[in-house]
Every structure is written in structure tokens, then in C-alpha cells.
Amino acid sequence: MIRLSHVTHLFGDDIRQGLAAARQQAGRDRIRQTLDMTLALDDVSLDIPTGELFVVMGLSGSGKSTLIRLINGLIRPQIGRVDVDGTDVSGLSPRDLVRFRRNRIAMVFQSFGLFPHKTVGENAGFGLAIEGLGRAERDERARHWLTRVGLEAYVDAYPAELSGGMRQRVGLARALAVDAPILLMDEPFSALDPVTRNDLQGLVLELEAELQRTIVFVTHDFSEAERLAGRMAVLHEGRIAQTGTPAEIRTAPADAHVAAFVASAVA
Ligand SMILES: Nc1ncnc2c1ncn2[C@@H]1O[C@H](COP(=O)(O)OP(=O)(O)OP(=O)(O)O)[C@@H](O)[C@H]1O
To answer: Measured from the CB, is residue 64 less than 6 Å from ligand 1?
Structure first.
């Protein structure tokens, strides 16, 4: 279970003053106007059960990346706490945090994050190299996952030889190869064409059914959320506007902002 409890996080110069304003529920606009600071997340509480494919949806600037970075411990919440499978992430020592990020969490990025001078196989095995696994085991596991994502013929190719969709399949194989129980996917398909995106969404659904890992999938696209999510949360200007199944959100959007998202997607 991933649990965010009353998490507030600001960016700017005078965090103390900003937090005092946030505690008094000044809101994002007033904090920007009066203090020139950004209230990235404002009193966010969220439970993501183990094994669920949970979608976080929101517009650019709504706080999605900040939320992901709080879950993987890249930033610590200024108010509130983040627990992952019973561990208070913000309470971890730097050494334990490195271990936590290596063993518990794998990431898939919008920009793929592949090394251009490494082969597809080396890229897929990269997380395993960091873990200190030997060459033979690394190659075997990388090959296994590359086969699973349909790229067995490309193990020795370089990323430049692949299409965007194939590159993201490598990103997926690399994330799966480390065998972490939690997969954080930050707008992984936003740079891809609709047909490729559709294929990769299908692959994620297959993998989720097969592996039952906890997947936190960030998107700004309600159609994508609707196809993938067991449950989802809509973030709006740093606050959670609504959580529920896609069907619940489609049927009864909590406010005009959520309704606009629903209307943007063809039923
Ligand atoms: N390091 C930072 N310094 C200052 N402001 C930041 C920083 N990181 C994020 N912000 C601000 O916090 C708010 C939330 O940003 P965040 O990146 O979490 O949103 P997002 O929903 O992921 O948007 P996007 O889809 O554009 O990445 C935005 O207004 C952003 O400008």
C-alpha cells in the first residue's frame, strides 16, 4: 500500500512563510500572488492498494510529477507523510533511501531515458548492473523481459535504430527487469502516436494482469485513464478533486474541472 497522508509541498524561497499560509488554507493562487511561491501539493491524502493499477490524472502543473517524486523519496514532504508498504519514506536515512529506490521502485519516463551508446540489451539490464548482478544473469534477465515486450530481435540494436514505441518497450523491460514491486510511470506514452500508444496500453494491461505489481500511472488523458485504471485520482492545482473508478468519475464528476476532463474523452 502506498499512502499519502495530508501531504503539502511548496516550491519557492521562504518555505516557512509559505507553509504557514498553506496551513491557513490560503490556496495556490493567493500564495502565488502574495508570496510568489508555488503550492505544488496542498493537503493531499491518497491510498493506493498493493497490486492496483492506479492512475493519477491532471493538467500540466497540477502536481503529478511532485507526487511521483514524493513516492520515490526524491523529495520529502514539508507537511504530512508518505508511507510505502509500511515504511515512512521521509524517515529513511540517505543510505536506506538509496536501497529503497533501488529495490522497491522502478520508473518509466516519458522521455524513455535510454543511453544512446548502450545496446537495447545493456539498457534493459541497466538497473541490474546497478544492483551489482553479474553479466550473464543481467543478460539473461534483460533478454527475458525484452522478449516479453516483443523486442527479442533487437537485443544488440541501439536506441537510435528503434521507433519511439519500441524505445518505450525497452524502458518497460528495464523497469520490469529489476523486479521491484512498484512501478511508477510518468506520462510514459504521451510522446507516442495514438496507434502506438494504444498498443502499449494493451501491453501494460497484460503485464498488470500477469504480474500484479502496483502501478502508479500518470497521464493528462482521460481516455488513457479510463482504459487503464482500476481506480484513479484527478489532481487539480495541487489538490485532489476526485478519486474513484473511471466509471464513477464519468458518471458523477465532482466539479466542473473534472467534468471538462470527462467531456474531452469520447465515451
Ligand atoms: N523544482 C521546482 N521549483 C519551482 N517550482 C516547481 C518545481 N517543480 C515543480 N514546480 C511547480 O509546482 C507545480 C506542480 O508541478 P509538477 O511538475 O508536479 O506538475 P505536473 O502536473 O507534473 O506538470 P507537468 O505535466 O507539466 O510535468 C507547477 O506549478 C510547477 O511549476
So the answer is: yes
Q: Looking at this protein, which amino acid is placed at residue 144?
A: H
Structural contact between residues 167 and 196, judged by C-beta atoms closer than 8 angstroms = no
Q: List pLDDT tens digits, range 45-74.
A: 999 999 999 999 999 999 999 999 999 999
Question: Can you give the length of the chain in residues?
Answer: 267
* Residue 267 pLDDT level (bands cut at 50, 70, 90): low
| pTM, 2 dp | 0.94
Written as one letter, the residue type at 53 is L
**216 strand-pairing partners:** 54, 184
C-beta of 141 in contact with ligand 1 (< 6 A): no
Q: How far apart are CA 38 and CA 188, in angstroms?
A: 25
Query: Could you read off the pLDDT of 12-45 as tens digits, one per residue?
Result: 998 999 988 888 888 889 999 999 999 999 999 9
At the second CATH level, the architecture of 49-104+182-264 is: 3-Layer(aba) Sandwich (3.40)
Give which of 32, 44, 33, 86 is closest to 69, Cα–Cα: 44
60 lines ligand 1 (CB under 6 A): yes
Q: CA dist 14 to 18, 36, 42, 62, 107, Å?
A: 6, 9, 16, 21, 31
